[in-house]
Amino acid sequence: MAFTPPSRDYTENPIDLNQVLVADKEATFYYRIQTQALINALVTYGSIAIIDRSQTAQNGDMVLARIGNEEKLRLLRKNEHKVLLCPANSKYKEIDITGRQDVTIIGVVTYIINDKTIWADVCTR
């Protein structure tokens, strides 16, 4: 069965992804993800994170952190006693960063871009 490409009939104004996805051009960068630590949040190896360095990380944000010489993409969890970097994959452990001097929050993830392989097996289940 052949389908006509929808773009032939689509006349709405094009979307400028830079306008939609980037709030602060000077503070935003793209980061290719090289971990499966957030797979249960539908963030996988090869996804692209859009990261804003100008945002202050809040509890529950996905952040890019530097621990020593390593970069970690994790979910930030804060309470009155601890600050944790948490995975969304049970094969990875939480990282307690409370009071550590070797940790820097580089930026907050504002968007994730996945290619079609992330949902490719949904229809085959």
Automatic annotation (TrEMBL):
Protein source organism: Filimonas zeae
InterPro entries (alphabetical): LexA-like (IPR039418), LexA/Signal_pep-like_sf (IPR036286), LexA_repressor (IPR050077), Peptidase_S24_S26A/B/C (IPR015927)
Residue span(s) of domain Peptidase S24/S26A/S26B/S26C: 11-109
The protein's name in its UniProt record: Peptidase S24/S26A/S26B/S26C domain-containing protein
PANTHER family per record: LEXA REPRESSOR, LEXA REPRESSOR-RELATED
